[in-house]
Write a structure and sequence with these properties.
Layout (H helix, E strand, L loop, with lengths): L17 E7 L2 H11 L4 E5 L8 E8 L2 E7 L4 E5 L5 E9 L2 E5 L2 E5 L3 E5 L5 E5 L4 E8 H12 L12 E3 L3 H17 L9 H16 L20 H12 L7 H8 L3 H11 L4 H19 L7 H7 L5 H12 L3 H6 L3
Antiparallel strand pairs: 1-3, 2-5, 3-4, 4-11, 5-10, 6-9, 6-11, 7-8, 7-10, 9-12
Helix pairs in contact: 2-4, 3-4, 5-6
Length: 337
């Protein structure tokens, strides 16, 4: 163990970083370390040779974020119940990791990071050759940041994309920033270890993630046309979020906002990145997906969930769902059994 005692739950206002590290070949010790630093309901099972176990972790907590570089040295499988209180990003620094979350299978490697929402259990196949940058962000902190960046009330949990690019664009910059912050905070005499500077870097990691992850509030959140959307766009978005199941037409939304159809469509193109009804369909799909990942297969049906989210044509719903999540609605529900 290095860097002091394991910290308790992070306080969102805390500016003093706490660094802890562990090198061990004892699986029980590694489990206890990860449960205290990340999540209590976490199960770690060796899949490869336990004798090759060489767990190594350096983790820093500061306010609403926890950053760490972690490897196991042998193949393992991790299962985690719904995160509930946090969003989580895994960035492979070497090797690749395969995970199943919310009915979708994702492979993360040096080119793509994987993103986990607070809902839905996670199953992670982690090879011994893989070393990860693991970033946990307090749920409320990220949601506040997205809300502030877009000047728009957001749903919770955020309907985030499952991955983002690490080769080009904001994802590459964000991953480099998070890794640099971890490196600096591990050095007690570094500039970033001073509370005032650490707080600023911490906020940059949270705000940077808000502008990096994919979400339906805009295809390119970092390129929004200014911090404030027109009142007409905000009224239409609020209406769709309040009643996503309602059979909105483009004419209904235009009448609600007091502008013509063409004006509303152009405003959405500029300030949201997609047409109003495309946004509405994606909002409904994400809502149905979130409900199916939580539902009890013995108590719910795909038909009920689809109708509840405004889908009246089950065949079209199933096709759009598979195109977005890579699996059918029934597979998502069945995986909850």
């Amino acid at each position: 163990m290095a860097g002091g005692r394991l910290p308790g739950p992070a306080s969102p206002g805390a500016d003093v970083p706490v660094h802890v590290g562990l090198r061990t070949s004892d699986m029980d010790e590694a489990r206890e370390f990860c449960r205290k630093l990340y999540y209590g309901p976490l199960r770690i099972d060796p899949v490869g040779d336990p004798g090759r176990m060489r767990f190594a972790a350096d983790v820093v907590t500061i306010g609403p974020i926890t950053l760490g570089e972690v490897r196991y040295g042998t193949d393992i499988r991790i299962t985690i119940e719904a995160l509930e209180t946090a969003y989580h990003v895994l960035v492979p620094l070497s090797g690749a990791v395969r995970s199943r979350h919310r009915g979708a299978v994702t492979l993360a490697d040096a080119t793509r990071a994987v993103v986990y929402r607070p809902t839905g259990d996670i199953e992670l196949d982690w090879p011994g050759s893989c070393r990860l940058l693991s970033v946990k962000v307090d749920r409320a902190a990220l949601e506040r940041e997205v809300d502030a960046a877009l000047d728009h009330r957001v749903v919770s949990p955020l309907p985030l994309g499952a991955t983002f690019d690490l080769v080009d664009g904001p994802g590459r910059t964000w991953a480099a920033l998070a890794r640099l912050l971890l490196h600096e905070l591990r050095c007690p005499d570094a500039l970033a270890s001073r509370p005032r500077m650490a707080a600023r870097w911490r906020d940059m990691v949270v705000s940077g993630l808000a502008l990096t992850v994919e979400h339906p509030y805009g295809e390119e959140p970092a390129g929004l046309q200014g911090p404030h959307r027109p009142r007409t766009v905000k009224r239409a978005l609020d209406a769709m979020h309040t009643e996503p199941w309602r059979p909105w037409t483009i004419h209904d939304l235009a009448a609600l906002t007091g502008v013509g159809v063409r004006v509303l469509q152009e405003s959405f193109r500029q300030h949201v990145g997609q047409p109003p009804l495309t946004y509405l369909r994606r909002l409904r799909l994400d809502g149905a997906h979130a409900e199916l990942t939580r539902a009890d297969p013995g108590q719910a049906s795909v038909t009920e969930v689809a109708y509840r989210w405004g889908f009246t044509h089950l065949g079209r719903f199933a096709g759009a769902y598979r195109a977005r999540f890579g699996v059918s609605p029934s597979e998502t529900l069945r995986d909850r059994a």
